[in-house]
Each structure stands twice: as structure tokens, then as C-alpha cells.
Amino acid sequence: MALKLEQKQALVAELGAHLANAQAVVLAEYSGLTVADMTSLRAAARKSGVYLRVLKNTLARRAVANTPFAGLAEHMSGPLAYGISPDPVAVAKVLHEFAKANEKFVIKAGAMRNHVMSAKDVASLAQLPSREELLGKLLGTMQAPVVQFVRTLNEVPTRLVRVLAAVRDQKEKQAV
Fold this sequence. Notes:
The protein is α+β, with helices and mostly antiparallel strands. It has 2 domains: 5-128, 2-Layer Sandwich (Alpha-Beta Plaits), CATH 3.30.70.1730; 129-176. The chain contains 6 helices and 5 strands.
């Protein structure tokens, strides 16, 4: 069913809004996948905060024109699924993991702002830890000196209490 001009314009505007907040876009061929497979991919993408859409390439070319992802236009041929996310690792992980499980789903290309990536680059990006993992490691690294300082400060009164308890125990033994 053909889209009307207003629907096409709305679709390009919606895609443009997602691209404005995006840090990465990944293109993948989905020929031969079942509806159930695509549904599971969409669910995984939604869970990770990835905008996943199957679009006509002409509409996608219009949406990426004059954006940092304009270099992807040359890779837009054939039936493609577009994954867009503000977290570059999330979109790469979701699509790469799905591609490993489904041989009919092939990652074609990707892009980060002003940098087009090959399928191999997308796979490398998928191997990186997620944003949450990196933030956790950073917080742990920042918190370690403070925790050690608090332990050191806590050790002084603890030792004093132990010494006083030892003196008390020694005086009790002498008194008996």
C-alpha cells in the first residue's frame, strides 16, 4: 500500500527527530526473516532503547541528507532495517547479537556522527561494554579512594578500643 505525501513527510520528520538525538545508526538486511524473528528483534531493540524501523530507502536517504549520517546513503540498497540509538554500543549490540543468532539477518553498515563504519566495525563496537557498565566501573574507580580513606579513619578508634579492652582484660586477670 503506497503512502500518501503527508504520511511520507511525517515519516521523514519522525526519522529526522530520532537522527537528531542519535549517536549511531546501523543498517541491516533482513530478507528471509520470519515475522516472529522480526518481532523478537523489535522487542529486544525496544528493551535497549533502540529505534528500529523498516523503511523505504528513498525516505531514509531524505532523512539522513544534511545530517552527520549522510555518508550512509551510499549503503542504502535492498530491504533494510534501520537501528538508531543515542547509545552507539546499544544499537550495535542488539543488532549484532541478533545477526549471530539469525544468519539471514546481515549487518550491512553503520555510522557514528560523521564516520561511516563497515559491518566489521559495527561488530567491534558491539564488543564494548555498555554505557551502564562503563558508568559503574567509573563510579567504582572514583569511589575506591574515598572508601579506603574512611576505612583508614575508622581504624584509629577501632585500635584504641582494642587496646583499652586488652588493658581491661589484663587488669581483671591481675585482680583475680
